[in-house]
Structure formats: C-alpha cells, structure tokens
Design goal:
By secondary structure, the protein is an alpha/beta fold. It contains 25 helices and 23 strands. 38% of the residues lie in helices and 18% in strands.
C-alpha cells in the first residue's frame, strides 16, 4: 500500500489513537528525511541493510557494489559494509565521495549518520593524498600536508624506508623499496598514488588481427576496449598498474591482449595452471600477429623464455627440497630468494615491460613479495572477483594496483555478452544413520562428511535426467566422491593427476560434443574454456569460498550459440555445515545480482528447468 494511502486510512479511523500517534511520528520522520519506500538503512557502524523485496532493490544493489562489500545475504535483508579499501578502490576507479553520498541518500530510508558521511569523505580524500613521483632522477614520496609528513616520519614501519627528507613535505626513497613503501602506506591508511612511471621494456611489435586465423571477424567489445584504455591511460604514469574485474566468459584474456597491443613490449604472463597457459597461447596465435617462436611456455613440462612468456604460479613458487639446516636460515629471509624459489629468476630473465597476473585473486604470497621488487614494470591483474579468502586484498591493491575497471555481471548478461543464468541450491537430507554419525563426528570432519552425502548421487542422477540434451559439468572437492560419480554416470574424470595431454583431449571432446558429461575436481575452477557447457552441478566445494563459487558459475557463462539458458546447481546437505558454507559461498554472486532458487529434494521430481524463451518472457 502506498504510504499516503496508509496515512489516510489511519486518519479516518479516529478510535486508533495509538496508531494516529504513530502516523504523526512517521510524518515528523518524513519531514526530517524519512522515506519508508526506500530499500536501504545506513547505520553508524558503516553497515548497510538492503531490503530484498523492495522494488528498488536491484537498482540500489548495483549502486552499492561500486563502493561497498556484501557481508551476509539471508532471504530478506542483505548486509553490506563500507570499508576504507572498498572506498579506495572506488576512488581509484574515478568515483568521488559526493557520488557515493548521493547514492546512499537516494536509496536510504533515514538520513545518513553524520559519522558515516564524514568517514566516506575522509577515506576517499586519503587516496592520492600521498604520491610517488620521479624528480631529477630521484624517487620521492610527496604530500601537500606538512603535518602528515611529520606524522609519517614518526611511524616505525615507514621511517626505515626513507633515504632522507628533501623538503618538509617530501622524502626520498630507494626505487627498489617502491613496493614496500606503497604497502606500508596502505597499512597506515594513506594509500599512495603511484606516478613514478615505468620502464618501457624490450620493444615487441604486437597487433590485434581484424580477422582471426579461424576466419572469424575480430573486434573488441566496447567494455573490453574501455578496460584496456583505462588501464593504459594513454601510456601515462597515471595508468599502467591495476586490476580489471570482469566475469568469467566476458573475455578477460582479450583485455590482456589489448593491453599488450598498447604496450608493444616483452610481456610476462602468470596463470593458475598449464591448461590456462595453453589457452593464452591459442588466443595469441588466433587473435594477434605474434608467431609461435615469439611465445614461450614456462610450466612443469617446458621452460621456454621468449618475448612473450606464460608461466604458472605453481612453477614460480616451486621450492626444491632443502638440505638439512637450511630451513631456519630461509625462514629468516624477508624476501623470496633464488635459492628458495629458483624459478623467480624468470622475473629478471628479460626486460619485461608488462606483467599480467591472470586470476590475480589466486596470486600466492611469495609472488606478492617478488612483485614488491618489480614496481617499475607495468602490472595488469585480471580477475572475476577481488575477493581473496586469505585476506590479502590490500596487497593486491598496493602491489598490483587498485581496481581500474569493473562491470556488474548482470549488466553484461542483459547486454548478451554472457549467458543468462539461473542458480539453484538443492537441499538434501542426511539419512537417519548418517545424521547420528554427523552429530558425533569430530568438528574437523563434519564438513567433509556432510559434503559427501551419498544421497547427492541420487539427486545428481535425477538432474541429469532432466538435462539429457544439455552439456553438463559436474564439479567437486573430494576425489573419492568424484570417482564414485564418474563411475555411476559413465563419464570421464579430470583431476590434478590427469596428464595435461589427456586433459586437453577430454576438453576438446567436450567442446566438439563427442562427450556431454564431464566430471571435474577443483582443477576445473579456473581457465577452462568450454563455451557450450550450459549446466554445472556442484556436489562439494572448498568450504565457504566465495571466489570458487564465482569461478564455477563462470564455467557456464559463455554465451551459447543456441541461446540456451545456463543452469548452476549446488547440492547441499541440509541442516549441516555444508549448508552454512553454501550461504557464505553465495555472497559474491548474490552481490552481482544472482538469486539462488532453493529447492528441497522432494520438490525436485516436479521441477522443470526453465528454457531461454520462458526466462525471456519473465524478464519482460
């Protein structure tokens, strides 16, 4: 009922004196800025409550994701939080404090608490208040606030990093300490804007093709072009480092190729696994003028160093067996050494002008430490989500760079660049014997016990029956569970132990339609290009990993040639840790606008998966 109609009805019933008083209070609130039709409540602890059933929910959510982080997403009210890091990323992407305040005021029921307003202005004002610049061959930390410079000088983490004080508001630092200075300043709450510039690297001519080798016309999508241009910033020191956030299937690799074409230099690309290495190579040969002899694979199988070299994180962080007595010595080192990580020498093996970190949210800690040493080289991070389960988001911000470009997943879905997707959580009970066994299990064993609930296999079979004509991926965490599934449905299984050649053969067969069922361990989370997969069934996951959930949905988000709707099913044992972790896993995708349809196993026989036409009618 509209608020005005509600007030009029209450006034017409004079017996309800208490309700009349309430109406008077509501009117007073409204005069002070109270707007009950709005979906947000902004609280003084910087948390934000968002009503899911409100007509303005989607619009408010799309505004919030630019500068706030989703913490909880139960059925009716979602909780977001504004943090300094979320605001610094917003500032780096060009969002001002006035715009953040305006969005919050536009959707809030109540006036903004004064301290929240002040905190937003202060956090965004702090980004770039300190700058790193090169002047006269010296690298300087500069601020226009002498009092702030004095405060920094007295910080025990910052003071040892300076060579000397040039002016009251300027400090000279060793260029080799550039990354460490930025990390410390971020920790102190004053993230620096790095304008010190970059080395150009060895020149390498790279052009994007207008027609791919396969004969298809090739042109960058508008958001891919925008992302590359924002990162490059016309080659100025204001660009050249940062993270591009795009959903899986939106073509992050293409953005990387576009950045390479702008940089025209030797490039080092770091990826999660060998399958991803091969996919980068295929895309380069198909869509750029690079030739095979210019591209090197640096993996567990090959060690080629060429003008464009693609390496895996696993190889970079490989450590040979230590001799007796070495462990304590190595543990005392602040930085990774060539003795400890011999393949880190790759960073200095050529004059790289650009380093691309694919799936940057997976970047291992030792690579962060090495990245601190190579701040003079341009750095591009590519990811579907900035969420890191290890809490190192600040290191991504300070060492790779801030978020430069981000597009809500649902925007790209509406534009047809990624597939329309429906997400389903299917809750499955433990049988009576299993419930008792779960109840008495040690805490550290409870999740695995619940996640490998044998009744999931029955539900899986029923889902496969409903998706007979579809291309289906089944993915999980626990190998014995996956082996049982592969045997039950007579489908091949890919795990970390599957040889690369066999993996590529099975993936090719799936792409060609020779097989339509494929079981994957967690190796399937990343960089597997299966454009026609339109159903993914998740039987178990890595505890409450939000990034994994996003990556798994991404396996089925590539646009379908036949226009099919994508389906993502998560099989969850009800009333267990499995269900609790599922709620956490879903946070990021909920933030991106995806809604999980909850089904119980007894409802599944009557469930009919939606077709694309049905979904399109629903949108209209």
């Amino acid at each position: 009922m509209p608020p005005n109609q509600f007030y009029n009805q209450l006034y017409s019933t004079r017996r309800h004196v208490g309700l009349l008083s309430h109406v008077h209070a509501l009117i007073r609130f409204r005069m002070k800025g109270y707007r009950p039709e709005n979906p947000l409540i902004v609280q003084s602890d910087r948390s934000i409550l968002l009503e899911v059933d409100n007509p303005l929910y989607a619009e408010a959510r799309d505004a919030l994701v630019r500068f706030a982080e989703l913490e909880k997403s139960p059925e009716y009210v979602h909780t977001y939080r504004v943090s300094p890091l979320s605001l610094w990323n917003a500032a780096a992407a060009g969002l001002g404090a006035d715009e953040v305040i305006r969005d919050l005021e536009r959707f809030s029921k109540y006036p903004l608490p004064d301290n929240v307003r002040a905190d937003i202005y202060e956090a965004i004002r702090r980004y770039g208040r300190i700058k790193l610049v090169m002047e006269g061959g010296r690298m300087l930390v500069v601020t226009d606030d002498v009092a702030l410079a004095e405060e920094l000088l007295r910080q025990r983490t910052f003071a040892p990093l300076i060579r000397g004080r040039v002016y009251p508001n300027q400090f000279e630092i060793d260029p080799a300490q550039r990354g460490h200075v930025k990390r410390v300043l971020t920790q102190l709450g004053y993230p620096a804007e790095d304008l010190a510039g970059y080395v150009e690297g060895t020149h390498l001519s790279i052009q994007l093709r207008e027609v791919t080798l396969s004969g298809e016309p090739f042109v960058l999508r508008h958001y891919q072009q925008e992302a590359a241009e924002v990162f490059w910033a016309q080659g100025s020191a204001a660009g050249g480092s940062g993270v591009i956030v795009l959903p899986c299937g939106a073509g992050k690799t293409i953005v990387g190729l576009a950045a390479m074409a702008k940089a025209q230099c030797a490039t080092l690309i770091l990826t999660p696994n060998t399958v991803a290495v091969r996919q980068w190579i295929r895309e380069m040969l198909d869509k750029t003028t690079l030739t095979e002899d210019q591209i090197g694979e640096y993996s567990g199988l090959k060690k080629q160093i060429r003008p464009v070299t693609i390496c895996t994180y696993q190889v970079l962080t490989h450590r040979p067996r230590r001799r007796k007595g070495e462990a304590s010595t190595i543990a005392r080192r602040a930085l990774p050494s060539l003795e400890e990580y011999p393949h880190m020498a790759l960073f200095n093996s050529m004059n790289w002008g650009l380093i691309i970190y694919d799936e940057v949210h997976l970047l291992p800690a030792p690579v962060f430490r090495m990245t601190a040493e190579i701040q003079a080289r341009r750095r591009l991070g590519l990811t579907a989500t900035l969420v890191r389960e290890d809490g190192l988001e600040e290191d991504v911000f300070s060492l790779i760079g801030p978020k430069r470009y981000d597009v809500p997943w649902k925007d790209l879905e509406r534009q047809g660049w990624i597939a329309n997707a429906e997400c389903h959580e299917i809750r499955i009970a433990l049988d009576e014997d299993s419930r008792m066994e779960y109840a008495v299990a040690e805490e550290e064993h409870k999740y695995r016990f619940a996640a490998t609930n044998p009744r999931k296999l029955e539900v899986l079979s029923l889902l496969l029956e409903k998706h007979k004509a579809d291309s289906v991926l089944i993915i999980g965490q626990f190998i014995p569970q996956l082996e049982a599934i592969a045997q039950r449905i007579h489908a091949p299984l890919i795990t970390g132990e599957t040889p690369i050649g066999q993996r590529e053969k099975l993936l090719a067969q799936f792409r060609e339609g020779e097989i339509t069922r494929l079981v994957l361990s967690k190796v399937g989370n990343f960089s597997i290009d299966l454009p026609d997969a339109n159903v993914l069934i998740q039987v178990s996951g890595m505890f409450g990993s939000r990034q994994e959930e996003a990556q798994r949905l991404g396996r089925v988000l590539r646009p379908k040639r036949n226009g099919l709707l994508a389906h993502f099913y998560s099989l969850v044992s009800r009333d267990t840790l499995d269900q609790e972790f599922a709620a956490r896993r879903q946070l990021f995708l909920t933030e991106q606008g995806y809604h999980y349809n909850i089904l119980y196993e007894d409802e599944l026989p009557g469930f009919t998966p939606a077709a694309i036409a049905t979904y399109a009618r629903h949108l209209q």
